[in-house]
What does this fold into?
Amino acid sequence: MGVSLRDIALRAGVSVATVSNVVNGYRPVAAATKVRVQEAIDEMGYSPNLSARHLRRGRTGFIALAIPELNNPYFAELADVAIAEAARHGYTVLLDSTNGERERELEVVHGLRAQIVDGLIFSPAQLGPSDLSDRRDSVPLVLVGERIHDVAYDHISIDNIAASRVAVEHLASLGRRRIAFVGAQDSDRQPAGLRLQGYTEGVHAAGLTVDPRLVVRTPGFDRADGADGVAPLLRGSDPPDAVFAYNDLIAVGVMRKAYELGLRVPDDLAVVGFDDINEARFTTPSLTTIAPDKDVIGKLAVTALVSRLEGEDNVPREYEVPFRLVVRESTVGAALPEEEPGA
Amino acid sequence: MGVSLRDIALRAGVSVATVSNVVNGYRPVAAATKVRVQEAIDEMGYSPNLSARHLRRGRTGFIALAIPELNNPYFAELADVAIAEAARHGYTVLLDSTNGERERELEVVHGLRAQIVDGLIFSPAQLGPSDLSDRRDSVPLVLVGERIHDVAYDHISIDNIAASRVAVEHLASLGRRRIAFVGAQDSDRQPAGLRLQGYTEGVHAAGLTVDPRLVVRTPGFDRADGADGVAPLLRGSDPPDAVFAYNDLIAVGVMRKAYELGLRVPDDLAVVGFDDINEARFTTPSLTTIAPDKDVIGKLAVTALVSRLEGEDNVPREYEVPFRLVVRESTVGAALPEEEPGA
DNA sequence: AGGGCTATCAATAACGTTATAGATGCGCCT
DNA sequence: AGGCGCATCTATAACGTTATTGATAGCCCT
It folds into this structure.
């Protein structure tokens, strides 16, 4: 193996304890010996064996970040923020993709990585409160992107219902009357259920009624799901004049399908997404969407977990992160200031 | 802490060594005791302490994957493949974002994670052969997405020059005469330099000459860089009739800027990208692009590293992964079969 | 001058695992 | 009967680190 504390100690003529103290600064070391040890370290190219350190310290400095999939830009962008923030706190992130599968999510929550991480940040796609209640507390858990009530964990969330309502009201305020929702799920699991509920509330608030034929369930949340899901609606008689999509990827698929069918966005079909992924600014037309503050979400998730790991406080907290409606061309057409403040 | 081997040993009335053998199957254990030990494990909920295991074994089962940034869908998609493939081999991936900064890349290559990973997969954006030659070999290294000659490491690459040439020849074959390249870099570092070279060769092969004003350098490789970079060209006199972009993100930015300026793609401006990110299939118009086989690249990178870690063979290998030109609407307009085989 | 305090360092016991060497019992062969 | 091999298991020494305890020397104070 490589150079160990013991090698440095021999070289510098001190004990391993002293070398350790020089490395960690845990206890004071005389300036002269500190220099001598440091020289030995530099000459021999020592760096501490992390496995040994982790074993001895009882903590690893790893935290797991479990997300549905990296292929979804929203989660990739979120992971990017979280990884950077974790590094600022001296932690290293282990990514786990659940593929949005219930089975994999259960594994993650019940300690798939329990023996190697100090804590877990989890963005659920399928799991509800009941799945979390029987968790034997292996490592501290922070929930993200999701409002799960009555569960004794920290969670970072936005108000999915309110945000969805704002999106639909925006469409209604533009005179749209047949507003579809694309991206519902078979189960009313979170958060798809919440956005559907917000959609319903928004439709009612606009004095309209929900036409069940305008609520489209999709197998997944990708662009192809949006395109395939909306196609029958657009081809059918009595098509919608607006779509609120579960997320931006589905919205992109919807716009793509509209384009293929010769429909103009927003003239024939207005589209609103959810997430404000980078891509949304550059689609043609650019995409009106709900923008959760990803930067805040990612940082908050990490800091909440870190303070849970390092603090003494033990009471679970809820953090509600604000969102904005970012109005772009897919609802109001071109020639408008790029962004305007929302709710 | 949690339950240890010792706890299980006491409960089952055997030695820790026997429990270890039951867990690892390293040495045979009598069926009866094996059952007894397994019961104790199940009852007490034991799982091995990985830090201790890593320390004792001298390997961690971690591999680092260093990429420029997760925000770039190409790398997110590649990481997704690599993570899954690594898991299949019993390895866990640690992601490191270099932001394409030379300094960070040097850190990665010279052992930032050396004390915790068994091996390293590195996708360079700035580093060249000379930066790698003075590497004191801490952990095995596999290079990805890049053809660096005369360096004693495995590398997985596609022929960037040939691919770029194919892209340009495709544009030329459609009658385009003023073909721009967007996404050149100040330094002729890899791989931007290679694609620029392929562009040059392609232009010459078509019997045209390279107009330096049509070669646009950009500060980065994102959508905004493409939009900002191409804007002066499109607004100027004697604009290009085609763009070959360094990557798909830049191509998307170019198409966006064309849209803003009222230019039609492909009629006024044909666009070819590079990477074939998922997004490219759903832009309006959809994006013609060079498609490296990401699936093969990601899997090959992992298997190459794993066989280097576990095999005895020690001779560095080159793997050249094929690419295809995927022709879509951004060069030939609508109503064409979605994909056709390329080079 | 002696006792106590501070500053500095050393010795060493863990942390939980795996690998090596050795112990035990049993059957079988000569 | 005695010894040998096999199957099974135990005892224990590492792996490299950190935290605890203890030792030593120098200094100040009464």
